[in-house]
Amino acid sequence: MASAAAFFDLDKTIIAKSSTLAFGRPFYQGGLINRRAVLRSAYAQFVFALAGADEDQMARMRDYLTAMCSGWDVQQIRDIVNETLHEIIDPLVYNEAVELIADHKAAGRDVVIISSSGDEVVRPIGEMVGADHVIATRMVVAEGKYTGEIEYYAYGPHKAEGLRALAEERGYDLAASYAYSDSITDAPMLEAVGHPFAVNPDKALRKLAVEKGWSILAFTNAVPLRERLSGLKPPRAGTTAAVAGALAGAAVLAWYSHSRRAARD
Questions:
Q1: DSSP letters of 179-204?
Q2: CA spacing 20 to 30 A to 165: which of 52, 136, 172, 188?
Q3: Which pLDDT score is estimated for 157?
Q4: Cβ distance 159 to 8 under 8 Å?
Q5: Structural domain contains residue 29
Q6: Is residue 94 part of a domain?
Q7: Each residue of 179-228: pLDDT tens digit?
């Protein structure tokens, strides 16, 4: 077992966009959301790229997700994600992140992805990039369908809790471990390790990193992962699929539309 680990956030740290927003179109093609939601998710990607999502926005996404996904068939979601994963995610992976993951693995450290996106999205992406473990949001499933409830929300302080629990289970020395994220909401995760890094940080995280003397990295080169990795394996057939995928696109835009209406009022 590795004596230390490197913990990575996913969105804007390993990939250039929000993983949850990226699956809007294939979910539309599968009949799960309408065309309007797809167009809104495209705009939400633009908003996310500019400013990320703060705590209030993430809470609205979460609440909207629990309402929308209720009754969705797990097998249908699984099939859609397995068919479209490489097409959608492959071109979004930062070259710098792939190289950093390889460096950590060469140094004998485990690589762990910790993301508020659904486990059904994060786990197959983790397999693509060579992660050893994944900590992600989990949805409740009953009789093959999503109930609309969240079993575990991997966000904010919950990420740090998940990190510490895995470290205890696997015997990681957190003082010798590394963590990478772009968002101020991941400050508890970064503070839990001896070597924290701010990657493409939002304004608040950049300020905190400067105050604490944390290293700041800029990842800009998103290239197709197939050009970086040889022998790339497709996700396992049993990999559960991404409920969070299509949902958050609509969620962000629902929040945005509400904010615009509130501003006009």
A1: EEES-GGGHHHHHTSSEEEEES--HH
A2: 52
A3: 93
A4: no
A5: yes
A6: yes
A7: 999 999 999 999 999 999 999 999 999 999 999 999 999 999 876 666 65
Answer yes or no: is 81 within a domain: yes
Identify each DSSP E strand in the chain by its residue range: 5-8, 110-118, 133-142, 145-152, 178-181, 195-199, 215-217
Query: Is the model more confident about 78 or about 113?
Result: 113
Confidence grade of residue 73 (pLDDT, cut at 50, 70, 90):
confident
User: What Rg value do the Cα atoms of the chain yield, rounded?
Assistant: 18
d(CA 115, CA 70): 21
Structure tokens at 18: 């929000």
Report the distance separating Cα 171 and Cα 43, nearest Å: 43
Q: Is residue 211 part of a domain?
A: no
pLDDT of residue 226: 62
- Whole-model pTM: value is 0.76
SS3 15: strand
Strands 110-118 and 5-8, by their bridges, are parallel
CA–CA dist 164, 226 (Å, integer): 33
- Count of structural domains within the chain: 1
Q: 131 near 93, Cβ under 8 Å?
A: no
Q: Are 213 and 194 in contact (CB under 8 A)?
A: no
CB 159 within 8 Å of CB 178: no
Q: What is the spatial distance between Cα 113 and Cα 136, in angstroms, rounded to a whole number?
A: 8
Cβ pair 27, 245 in contact under 8 A: yes
Which residues are designated catalytic?
9, 11
Is 255 a residue whose pLDDT tops 80? no
Whose tokens are 């939601």? That residue is 37
**Polymer length in residues for the chain:** 265
| CB-based contact 235:252 (threshold 8 Å) | no
